[in-house]
Write the structure tokens for this entry.
Amino acid sequence: MSQEKNKRRKTRRAAGQAPERQKRRRRKGNNILWYLLILVFMVTTTIILTTTVFFKIKNITVTGNEHYDNRSLILSSGILLEENMFRLKDEQIKEKLVEEYSYISKVKIRRKLPDTIVLEITEATPIGAIDAGAGYTLISEEGRVLECNTPVLPEEMPIVMGFSEETPEQGSYLSEMDSDNVKRMQMVMKAAEKTGFSYFNIIDLSDPYDLKLYYQEVFEIILGTDSNLEYKMELILKVIETQNLLTGFRGTIDASYEGEVWTRPSGSVAIPDYSSQLSNDAADPAGDDGSTSDSGSATSQPEDNGFSVGAA
């Protein structure tokens, strides 16, 4: 009997506890829902305050700019004071500045909390010039026209011959037709930088199989194709040093032969008329500029009075 009473008590107790458990579960579920609603409200309020009340722009600064007025760049960017810094459209601002200003190659927009925007400008560097007759057209490593009609050629900047465009516009890129010559210009300049080769002030890219450099009216340097340019320049430097060519020599240095450099002295070096090169190319696709240099030097044997350095 006592066991049956105990069972009945337990059954009644369990029956009484079940509604309590359900109530606690409901209360717990309601609490979680309230917490989620409060969290959503707080996040929404924070976003609204961030985009409307806080982080308003009070200062705009420009770094890395050397060619333009900072105020002009800020106006062109379209960034306004009191505007929220997190509502700026970065990519549109970058594209606009790069397109409008030829010397600007990259723009980074940095937010300096709580209220300052910094425009970090990366400028392109001209590595070559086209003689356009009325002035010089400066071009970047990527083949972008940085400046037109510059009256004075910048110091130590080579004139580059062989491009097809006669009057490229500032800010534009040289045409697709010139893309290979842009790459060759890059290769020549990089090889010269790595080897310390500085004995040239004209780069002639008119013939891709007969690249030439000119050093004032002293050297005509024949490189041949654009392969192994660093090695060729190292051999040329060796010849110039060992033969003391900087004193008294005037003529051709031919490095177009594999592993060899030949020198051919002459009374003078005929520098091509680079001021009319573009118009000549337009009239004659073959690019014959009337130069007195030996056009067959890349395939015929050099003269016997030359000096040769073989591969070391």
